[in-house]
Amino acid sequence: MEDSRSLKKAEISVKQGRIVKLVSSDSFFSIFVFLGKDKSKDHILDEDSCDCKSFVFRKIYRGDGFCYHVLALKMAMEKENYRTLRASSKEVFEVLLEIHAYGKSLKLRKLLVRQ
Hints:
Keywords: Metal-binding, Zinc, Zinc-finger. This is Metal-binding protein. By secondary structure, the protein is an alpha+beta fold. It is built from 5 helices and 5 strands; from the N terminus they run H-E-E-E-E-H-H-E-H-H. The chain has one domain.
């Protein structure tokens, strides 16, 4: 069961346009990224999972709900309210590598500005 605080945070995140669908222009690969604000991290996610600690603790360990990143993605997908960014496979790989290594992707932000 999702708490009202998580639902509110998810709703605000969708309104702020923090869900990005990253699509590889030269293959069939696509993935969703949740853009972190300020010092918070970016997250790689889909409808059922997220790479954040909250997801691991809440969903996997306690089994009681999703993190607000996944809730935001579900809301965004329901209304088709997310940004879609097409990039080469190399650029998609670089974005994912940066998120994994540093928690944020400057490459993704540069691509979004150029869009």
